[in-house]
Prior knowledge:
The protein is of the alpha+beta class. It has helices spanning 3-14, 19-30, 40-49, 87-97, 124-134, 142-147, 216-226, 258-266, 286-295, 308-316, and strands at 16-18, 53-56, 61-64, 68-71, 78-82, 104-108, 116-120, 137-140, 170-174, 179-183, 191-196, 200-205, 211-213, 233-236, 247-251, 273-274, 278-282, 301-302. The strands form 4 sheets. Strands 6-7-5-4-8 form a 5-stranded mixed sheet, covered by helices on one side. A 5-stranded antiparallel sheet has the order 10-9-11-12-13, with helices on one face. It has a 5-stranded mixed sheet with strand order 16-17-15-14-18, with helices on one face.
Amino acid sequence: xxxxxxxxxxxxxxxxxxxxxxxxxxxxxxxxxxxxxxxxxxxxxxxxxxxxxxxxxxxxxxxxxxxxxxxxxxxxxxxxxxxxxxxxxxxxxxxxxxxxxxxxxxxxxxxxxxxxxxxxxxxxxxxxxxxxxxxxxxxxxxxxxxxxxxxxxxxxxxxxxxxxxxxxxxxxxxxxxxxxxxxxxxxxxxxxxxxxxxxxxxxxxxxxxxxxxxxxxxxxxxxxxxxxxxxxxxxxxxxxxxxxxxxxxxxxxxxxxxxxxxxxxxxxxxxxxxxxxxxxxxxxxxxxxxxxxxxxxxxxxxxxxxxxxxxxxxxxx
Length: 317
């Protein structure tokens, strides 16, 4: 069991609490894994992206999400377990599966991230019954459900905030170059900045020099929009022979806002595959990809496997 799984099981038993306690708990766990260098906030962010926990970084509080079984499209009746994974529920699932001949569960590891737990059946009704017997919500196509809640990003600035002091080190996000540029002295350019304040925080500086609260992912896409940048998201239709699923590619180092990221991950139940140039979210259907792109002010470029049959299969999910 890796650190992500240990943390998820631990948080599932507690239910909710302060982020500072979780941060310290993960740091203590890492002492038993000398080769594990992922920061505590990144471990928690992975669990949040997979739909297991919810974190309010402003008030530094967290809670586990409702445990659910989500039936995935184009996967021959596979469902993924999201939300809390308390030991009692895991044991209950194992016991219930012994009553079914055509239903079984399996796990898939994704690098250092949380292990994905799947349940596969011969029919959707069996999956629904298993979920009800175990005490899990049953959701059909969770990615489409999440994507339906996405709205086009509201780029208005509403909450004033304190920016970095003149003596503090900060970094400005260069959207075209896709990197952070260290600044010295008082920041002068408008745009997205990050600096240390009990951990990395991001703020937006407008043309008049005022500072505003800005979440990192939203700020990066706002900077891209103001720079006229497009093509940050690419959608690939599934291969005709089904050897490759549909997927959504996001250019590095951009990251998706929380709900959009959850929709992308909920398409397969797996964290994205990270390459040197992009993040690849698998099994993302065309309609979901378009909703995600619209929500961040982008239009997904369609590349590869884009035959009419492939498009049709991708859009139907």
